[in-house]
Amino acid sequence: MAEFVLENVSFDVEIPGEPISEKDLIDLEAKLGTQLPAQLRSYYLRWNGGIPLPSSILEDKSAWVRLHWKQGAEAARVGPATPLQGLFKINSSPDTDFLRIWNDFKRRIPQDVLCFARDPGGSLFLIGIKDYNLGKIYFWERSYEADIGAGELPGYDNIADVANSFVEFLLALHEEPDEGESLEAWVRRVYG
After folding, report:
1. Which residue, 18, 95, 121, 177, is most buried by CB atoms nearer than 10 A?
2. How far apart are CA 102 and CA 188, in angstroms?
3. DSSP structural state of residue 103
4. CA distance linking residue 47 with residue 4, whole number of Å
């Protein structure tokens, strides 16, 4: 387990990937056709995926994060929070490999984002890659995705805002809701 401190919050990284080099990252970015935003790029050079957990989270608990849905979004039915299963790894096994997963989903998500992590249900965490959304973190709910086969284009109807940066995303991670606690009550308790 790797450890780091970010704005006076201690984190552990469980199950990080094999270390990668700057060349590995440059090769990935060439295949993606874009650079990773700076904060995410720095994280990958140090830990290569894994599960970043604030040290305050007990070992048998998971990290959850608040979701901000657009007014009237049907996808908001999934609730105001979701757990983080982990970040994809570069040059890894197929089920966690950053490039393979991005290739699987790139036609199903908007073109101004990359997927970099998932929740346990297979929905994705995205990061903005264009000037107007660079580094911003989103959550893509797969059960409400556009029907590409019917000619629908991926949009933001099934996407919630999560954080304005990767660092803000990490700092927003908190221990899972208590047993029997509603997600709404958890959001009020944790985020005030």
Report:
1. 177
2. 34
3. H
4. 10
Give how far the C-alpha of residue 189 lies from the chain's centroid of Cα atoms, to the nearest Å: 22
pLDDT for 69-104, tens place per residue? 999 999 999 999 999 999 999 999 989 999 999 999
Instruction: Return d(Cα 86, Cα 175) in angstroms, integer.
Output: 14
- Report CA dihedral (91, 97, 103, 105) to the nearest 10 degrees: -160
| Separation of alpha carbons 28 and 32, rounded Å | 6
pTM for the whole structure: 0.95
Q: Which positions ≥6 away from 33 have C-beta within 8 Å?
A: none
97-151 residue pLDDT tens: 999 999 999 999 999 999 999 999 999 999 999 999 999 999 999 999 999 999 9
Question: Residue 163: enclosing H or E segment and its boundaries?
Answer: strand 159-163
Residue type, 155: G
What SS3 class is residue 110? coil
